[in-house]
Amino acid sequence: MFELSQDHEDFRKVVRDFAEREVEPHVAQWDKDHHFPTDLVPKMGDLGLFGLVVPEEFGGSLDPEEGGAFTSLCVAIEELGRVDQSIGITLSAGVGLGINPILTYGNDEQKQQFLPDLVAGRALAGFGLTEPDAGSDAGATRTKAARDGDEWVVDGAKAFITNSGTDITSVVTVTARTGTDSNGNAEISAIMIPSGTPGFTVEPAYDKLGWHISDTHGLTFQNCRVPEGNLLGEQGQGFKQFLKTLDDGRIAISALAVGMAQAMLELSTDYAKTRTAFGRPIGSNQGVSFQVADLAVSVEAARLLTYKAAWLKDEMEAGRRSLKEVKQAASIAKLYSSEAAVTATRIAVQIFGGNGFMEEYPVARFYRDGKILEIGEGTSEVQRMLIARHLGLGA
């Protein structure tokens, strides 16, 4: 059965120290200013966070014989998310949506061109899937890419793309229609578009409910030309590629949710012990103590589901588990953990009372950040649909 190794626990301490030292003192101001801390990314790279699942030849630390690399990534995402969700999603998206598609489907030239800088934190990459009219219904993609000689000409728009407009963003991989298959269905391919390419416009940053520190933009492409060699993987395989990318991303989002729930448990426990009312700590009241106890249960359950899914992912990479098992575990973990985290923020704000409604207390920031966990990387409704299908139910 799965368990976190001592190496994983030691690594957790390293990342927690980094998060508490380099992130926690600044996040309230960064959040207030909607500031993306570009200078933090190379520090995360120096710690090796972007290279956990990347082979050494591209600057990473992956040892295929050792195993547990994806679990290590989830530990890092959890610990960053425990301090701030925006920084956690910067790592999650930077690896899962930026690095992984290139690592998994790129040719040697593409890997050598982009991966070393991405692993080192000198650059970030994004993944353009969602569109204004095509989110969960990715088959409705309207962005098109047509061959013109030895170039792809891309036209269309993407929405809600993470790490797409920073000063160090080097490339965004986008899904686009490149034709139709033998059944008349849209042929979807993935194409890499470097930052600064003529015709590639990064729209102004969104004014979001939460994740104020995270970089998120809409993208537009008008007669945007890139070399034919920027096709990522095989033509027409983009749909399958992003489905696998989302499977991994769901486990990563689950780890991010665990970090949030853990933070709510710690903050609520401390507040219940120190905040007094009617001459005694509010935690001595059963109404409060039971809520904190429920938080402890949900954190434990979410963590177990998350790391079971991460373990299965690592086991699959070693050839000992199936993709079907990973997909089901990923959906279960993502569904439960994201909803548990959102509930945890509501409980924490309630325990903090009026103070929980004040921005000077971190629970307010977590409350704003939480809702997106039930939406991004596949909504809760999509996860229920996938879980039901696995059981032979539903359409």
Automatic annotation (TrEMBL):
Cofactor requirements of the protein: FAD
Keywords: FAD, Flavoprotein, Oxidoreductase
Domain of life: Bacteria
Domain Acyl-CoA oxidase/dehydrogenase middle: 127-224
InterPro entries listed in its UniProt record: Acyl-CoA_DH_CS, Acyl-CoA_Oxase/DH_mid-dom, Acyl-CoA_Oxase/DH_mid-dom_sf, AcylCo_DH-like_C, AcylCo_DH/oxidase_C, AcylCoA_DH/ox_N, AcylCoA_DH/ox_N_sf, AcylCoA_DH/oxidase_NM_dom_sf
Keyword Flavoprotein attached: yes
GO molecular function ontology, one term from the record: flavin adenine dinucleotide binding
Entry similarity comment: Belongs to the acyl-CoA dehydrogenase family.
Name used for this protein in its record: Acyl-CoA dehydrogenase
